[in-house]
Amino acid sequence: MFEKVDHIGVAVKDLNEAIKFYVDTLGGIKETPIFGSPRGDRSMVMISLGNVKFEFVSTTDTESALAKFIEEYGEGLHHLGVEVDDIDKEIKSLTARGVSAMDNQAIQRPNHKAAYIYPEAMNGVSVEMMEFLKKEYVY
Question: For residues 90 and 82, is the Cβ–Cβ distance under 8 A?
């Protein structure tokens, strides 16, 4: 099942303001430059505070699901990123146990595969399952 929490995803309207606050004010460490999603509708940055990683996510597409999320719920917790050993096995296992509100196929990214369990299945929290091909984040 889940190996560990990799990061906490936070939806924000302005990445630069988030960086300013979490790095300059709170003393966090900017782990990555700002990078875009493969679909091109999001911009993200990873920041560590102590031993906790945050993935701050903003959108460049006012019609995207993330823009609608921010409009409806405001800025804040968007998802938990959890590491799994074998994502395809997890998808099959969760499906067999009746979890239907999730991606039924992993998305290939540069160094990991990912699939989401939707909030309606997880008490209102979206969970990003991640199987790393390398043990480091590549953007």
Answer: no
DSSP conformation letters of 51-114 = TEEEEEEEES-TTSHHHHHHHHH-SEEEEEEEEES-HHHHHHHHHHTT--SB-SSPEE-SSEEE
- Distance between first and last Cα of the chain: 25
Domains annotated on the chain, with CATH? 2-132 (3.10.180.10)
Query: Residue 106: what are its φ and ψ, rounded to 5°?
Result: -70, 150
**Rounded CA gap, 132 and 13, in Å?**
28
Residue tagged 């992993």 (tokens): 106
For the segment 88-102, what is each residue's pLDDT rounded down to a tens digit? 999 999 999 999 888
